[in-house]
Amino acid sequence: MVSIYKYLIGTFLCFAFFSIYGQASSSIDQKLSEVDSLLDLDSTRLAKVALDQINDHRSSTFNIDQLIFFHKLSGDYYLMINNYESSEQAYAPLLNISSNDLSKESTIRLARAINDMGISQMKIGRHEEAKQNHFRSIILYDRYNDHQGAAFNYNNLALLYQEAKNIDSALISYELSLQHAQIANDTLGIAYNHRNLASLYADNQEPIKAFEHFQEAMRVAVMANNESILNSTKLNLARYYNRLHDYEGALNLFHHLKMFYNRDDWPATLGMVYIGMAESFMGLHQQDSALHYLNQSIEVLTPTNYKKGLSQAHNMIGMYYLDTKEYDLALTYFDKALQIATTLKGTQWINLRGKAQVYLELGEYQKAIDYASESMDSPLFSESVNNLATRYEILYKGYKALNNKDLALHYLELMNEQKAKLFSEDKALDIARLEYRNELTLEELRRAELEKELKYERMEDKRNQQIIQLILIIAVIIVSTISLLINHSKNLKSKANRLLKERNEALHALRNKEKQISEQTIATKDRALAAATMSQHEKNNILSILNDKIANLSSEDDLKSTVKELRKTIGDSYSLDKSWDSFVHRFEDVHPGFFESLKKKSTAITINDLKLSAYIKIGMSNKEIANVTHLTLGSVKSKINRLKKKLELSSEENIREYLLQL
Q1: Over the stretch 156-208, which tens digit does the pLDDT of each residue have?
Q2: Which CATH number fits domain 591-661: 2.170.120.30, 1.10.8.60, 3.20.20.450, 1.10.10.10?
Q3: How far apart are alpha carbons 205 and 201 in whole angstroms?
Q4: How far, in Å, CA of 659 to CA of 661, rounded?
Q5: How many Å apart are CA 409 and CA 399, to the nearest integer?
Q6: Long-range Cβ contacts of 64-68 (<8 Å, 24+ apart)
């Protein structure tokens, strides 16, 4: 799915590239950036087409920055398809470019290209040139404190030193690489260095340190969620298992790696996995399975042109046929390995010794001596003790068979010397194997203890979870119960409040009704008082009129005595004072305490003021008061104003409202 996704994006980018390319306004920088994007997506075929298009139209208009970018992309393309010779040739023009006046971007780009050129040279066995280019690249990276780039270069230098068995220089280079990766906070760079340090310590027969770095590399890779570095570390670890003769452990790792690299289509690495599996099966004496995987490795490595891997696979097949006494096939595969490894000195010597062994067993001793002599060591390279012992043994047996005792004795001594070293190495390897086994045992014990602790923690967690669940259930029940009680209480309270509200409303309505009735009653009584007062006034008025008329008649003698009696009767009928007392009594029934309240308001209140206030209180108008009191309307108003002053009311205050509220 990822490959399809990459292909679709790559096709789109290529289409976009050619669309842009066809426009006259498109710049070279845009075209080069498109190629860079295609390579990032592993769309090498589309990138090559685009590079050819640029190359066909390339002219002197290229500036120095574009020229660097173009050669870098060309070299990157060939490096990605494992065509290391073409990659080196594509990068080569960059060595003639002066870096003095370059921008930071172009300087870093140049440094990366020269670094990758060193990788290509290392792959084809040109180690010295590769080393020089890595040093050049480091100088360029240091100019701008690019620690990540420096880490890459020191790592590649360490690989070169490790290949040449220069352990001390390799160790220093890895440590420098690790330091730069840590400064750059490059997680993957840190993992790579731990992995390579593990391989270095494995070569130096320090298994404990090797396993520590293997574990750290895998831990960092897992943290970074990077399967690539994780599995490359497992590949190195599996090879180390083979060296420690733990073939079953190696095969377990190789089977997993085979599935991963098949899935991700990494043929060069898959080929090395097959070679590792073949070594494991040879160690388990399952030669047919070993041959099967060697043929598989050649099949996947041939398109990659990975010379070291191809040469190693052909050499191992030659050794297989040597063991089965099929000498012609053995020589064929040794010759193929030699043709492939023209620049790989160490691999050439291994295959020359293989041919020498074949001719020794065929009884062609001079040829055996010639090939063994040709595989002599070089001052630039150091051979392993095992390889030296094998070569000296062939020379010893060859010269002995030819009855050349002096040379035979010479190589016998050299052989014994190397075998003594080999014996020491074997012992060291045995010790390393024991340390490894002991470390594995301790690791298994630690893992078992950890599993036990984890199991106990899981049980504790489960028990705690159960307790928490129980507490939660109880809490939910309690909360639910409380909630129900609260709701019930709220409902009861709401109901009580509703009833109380209804009762209050009913009581309020009743009080309003009572107040209304009381007001109506008071109003009725006030009306009765007013009516009685008016009635008394009318009666007295009639009596006054009658009295005046009789007075006019009283001058006549014959009526004098009769008129006198009538006037006495009328005078006795005047009941003003009695009438007022009766009014006060009835008024006090309706408005108790009214007169007392008035008297407290002012000590200047007179009886007439009390009468006037009473008339106003029962709702009589000024005109009605004038009629009752036999006063004019103006006099009534004057009396009211004087009463207002006595009560200390302001001009804005209404005396009627005041008295009605009193």
Answers
A1: 888 888 777 788 888 888 889 888 988 988 888 888 888 888 888 887 777 78
A2: 1.10.10.10
A3: 6
A4: 5
A5: 9
A6: 64/97, 64/102, 64/106, 65/102, 65/103, 65/105, 65/106, 66/28, 66/29, 66/32, 67/93, 67/97, 68/94, 68/97, 68/102, 68/106, 68/109, 68/110, 68/113
Residue closest to 176 by CA, chosen among 144, 203, 141: 141
H runs (alpha helix) in 302-404: 307-323, 327-340, 345-362, 365-374, 385-401
For the chain, give every domain's residue range.
591-661
What tokens appear for 587 in the block?
């008024």
Token duo for residue 334: 């040794």
Residues with Cβ within 8 Å of 399's Cβ and at least 6 positions away in sequence, in order, are 365, 369, 405, 407, 408, 411
The dihedral sign for the CA sequence 645, 650, 656, 657: negative
pLDDT tens across 85-95, in order? Answer: 888 888 899 88
Contact 235, 196 (CB under 8 A): no
Written in H, E and C, the secondary structure of 258-310 is HHHHHHHCCHHHHHHHHHHHHHHHHHCCCHHHHHHHHHHHHHHHHHHCCHHHH
Which one-letter amino acid corresponds to residue 389?
Answer: A
Secondary structure of residue 124 in the 3-state scheme: coil
Write down the pTM of the prediction.
Answer: 0.51
Rounded Cα distance between 554 and 543, Å, is 16
For 600-613, give one letter per residue: b (16+ CB within 10 A) or e. ebeeebeeebbbbb
* 2-21 helix and 44-56 helix, angle to the nearest 10 degrees: 10
